Amino acid sequence: MKVIVIGATGAIGKAVTEELGKRHEVVTVGASSGQYQADFTDIAQVRSLFAKVGKVDAVVVAAGALHFAPLASFTPEQFHVGLNSKLMGQVNVALVAQDYLNDGGSITLTSGIVAEEPIRNGVSASMVNSAVEGFVRGAAVELPRGLRINVVSPTVLQESMESYGPFFIGFEPIAASRAALSYARSVDGVQTGQIYKAW
Asked: Which keywords does the record carry (predicted)?
């Protein structure tokens, strides 16, 4: 299969690229690196990306920015960081991918454990991750041509503990390679509308 991985240079993206690369042709995409570059918050750039890559069998998104701050000080602009990036960026990819996926192809998006397990300073992350999961459940019942869509919800990664560890006190981190197995399950499997929990 030919698979696009967006966010291919991040901790999860690298592991997903390595895992899928064992069986498939992987096209890597990043904001400023990879085989192709695109800002997925701009749907015009997403359209241009797919026009260049052409038909594919699967699309994986392992990207998206979020703002972490106390609710008392949160501003609408800070909420829009996650809404514009991790939510609408992934929705943009899903919308465009429909026209470039071969019959039976799949889309795999990324949410996160805080959709179910809120953390201090993580209200935007909980909101956005929950919204991504809601989008996937809704889209799964409408996609044509046997197209599938799932979402992977990872916990904090061992590789990210230096940056995110203080937000995830008491959570057991997992290796990115373990999270990548859930993406492989989505790409190589048969289910749709699923939330694969990598916890």
From this structure: Oxidoreductase
